[in-house]
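[step 3/7] fold_predict: job queued, chain A
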Amino acid sequence: PGSTVTFQWSSVSGATNYAVQVSTSPTFSPLFHYNYTYSKTSSTYKDFPNNGTTYYWRAKSYNAAGWGDWGDSRSLINGSGGGTLPAPTLLSPSSGATVPGSTVTFQWSSVSGATNYAVQVSTSPTFSPLFHYNYTYSKTSFTYKDFPNNGTTYYWRVKSYNAAGWGDWGSSRSFNDG
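[step 4/7] structure written:
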C-alpha cells in the first residue's frame, strides 16, 4: 500500500518496447492508466490512490513486427480504505467499564484470514493524539502494563491485516481507568 506503485514484468526476447494498462475493471474498460514504457520492464506510478480499491493490470511487448498480445492480468488492492478485511469485534474492556489497577488487557475476536492486528488507545474519541499504538501480530489480545490508573476515559479500537493490506478500524469503545 502507498501512493507510489511499481509494476514489473519479465523481458521478452526481441521486444523493443512495452505497454502497461491499469484498470479498476477486470475487462480493462474503463482504463485507469495506459502507459507506453518503451524499453523498460517496469513502470512506476506516483500519486496512485491509496484507498483500498482493487486494480487490474497487464503488459504487452512490441518489436518491428508490431504489438504482441496482452499478457495475463493480475490484481492488487492498494491501501485499506476499502476494508480489505472486516474489523474485529471488541470483547474487553466493555464500553463504559471501569478498569481498576495499572494493567489493562484488550481482547477482540479473531478475523478469518487475518494474520496481524493493530490496537490504538487514545484519550480522544478521534484518536488524536494517540496514547498508545501497538502492532500485536497474530494475537487477539494485548496487555498494557503501567497504565496511569488516574480516572481518565480512554478509547480503543482494533484493525486486522493480511497480505492484501490493512482493514478498516472498527468501531471504538471507551473505558475508565481507576
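[step 5/7] annotate
The longest strand covers residues 53-63.
DSSP finds no helices and 16 strands in the chain.
exit 0
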